[in-house]
Amino acid sequence: MAAPWRDVVRDAAAVREAAAVAVDAALLAGGLMRTGEQPHASDVVNYAPFTLLPSAVPRALFEQAYAVQQDFNLLVDAISQKKEFLEQTLASTIKVDDFTAQLFRIYMQVLEEGLAQTVFLGINRSDYMFDCGLDGTAALRQIEINTIAASFGGLTSRTADVHGLVLKVLGKTEEASHLLPNNPAKGLALGIAKAWELYGSQRAVVMFLVEEIQRNIFDQRCVENELWSRNIRVIRKRFRDVFEQGSLDASRRLYMDSQEVAVVYYREGYVPQNYDQQNWEARLLLERSRAVKCPDIATQLAGTKKVQQELSRPGTLEKLLPGRPEAIARIRATFAGLYSLDEGEEGDRIAATAIADPDRFVLKPQREGGGNNLYGEELRQVLEKIKDSPERTSYILMDKIKPQPAQNYLLRAHSPLRVSECISELGIFGVYVRQGQELVLNQAAGHLLRTKAIEHADGGVAAGVAVLDTPYLV
Length: 474
Ligand code: ADP
Ligand code: MG
Prior knowledge:
The protein is an alpha+beta fold. It has helices at residues 12-29, 59-67, 69-80, 83-96, 98-113, 159-169, 173-176, 184-199, 217-229, 239-245, 277-288, 297-302, 305-311, 316-320, 325-332, 345-356, 376-386, and strands at residues 32-34, 45-47, 50-51, 55-57, 119-132, 138-146, 205-209, 234-237, 246-248, 254-256, 259-266, 292-294, 338-340, 361-365, 395-399, 406-411, 419-435, 438-453, 467-469, 471-473. The radius of gyration is 22 Å and the shape is globular. Keywords: ATP-binding, Glutathione biosynthesis, Ligase, Magnesium, Metal-binding, Nucleotide-binding.
């Protein structure tokens, strides 16, 4: 891939000067995070880590990622309404993965009772890397789609201006003018506001369901403030608060004490550590309610790695999106090789292949949030150990994407300034709203570029590995 900053990246004095400007600009722009030492208050904050330079992204792949987003919205929404598909696809997984099994139990319980929810809101982020072929051409490959708590739609809106300033400081005024404005938070808020409006109660609030530790609160505040500017009231609550204050009335309207809730926007609830017995009860209460959950539990299940793997099987997309061959072609063009480890001959064969050649693959459990996947020698050892046990089915295998690295500086508080070989991951935010069977909104809402040093195989921004970036289209 093109390396547009080759002339400045090794100019130590220029880099030092630009980095100082960049950090102050990020603070001024509100690209902020709470610190690890003081995660519960905003008295002391720091800048969210980011690259000094915007990273080159091939324009054609960037446009391809945007062009397929509405298709992915449709697909996720379709999966969330297909009980048999979710049941069959997750059957082997829920036998061995307790977390997915517990989500699935709630899903079945809610369906048995009958859904009270009639308005549906999806906010997702489809993530990609640029796979570098033998001939040097790059291809867009989906890493995963996040259907719950997809983050950084707020903070990412702050980086383009910072990078524009950095480029000017480095004498690249013309290039600075090409950086695209980007504000996913606005699009996410538009979806939430639409769902709130269709829910149909002026008095009702939007509830952000948040974690105990909220280091990334400023990212969420960007979305919150967009809602306040539309005169929609926002409250922030944890599962614990729902357990203590939440109740349903006879028509299953959700109340927090006496406050009616129209929309529940989850920024929590995607990993097992988020739940104890009380939190599971709180989750069930929310799912049973009429409130618009973003996402509802079916949509969360639609985002599992196991579902992603099943989608790549020939014929599956055709069943889920009948009569939409063009959407299917766009979606399929982004798939990397994905393989089931279910018991049987197919799973045996791919397990043996991966053990023989682990660097070709990534081994993924049904987990979110980064840092869970296995690579290389570790992949080989784990697969060797579980290859003859049912535990194998709690994982999927995926072809490892190999992007072309580029040099950049990762700016992180208290870290030395040094050049790193980096690779990037592009995320596109999608938003949709459905009322009954009618899709009333379906949009791409903006993008997120995250960049990390190549020595880290895994991990996002929250995990402390990747940093915020801005695409520079080439
Ligand atoms: P999570 O749900 O934990 O975010 P991901 O599937 O997004 O799981 O994987 C986490 C990280 O691991 C990604 O951000 C990416 O850096 C890396 N990764 C995941 N899949 C692949 C792959 N197929 N090839 C190369 N790197 C990958
Ligand atoms: Mg991810």
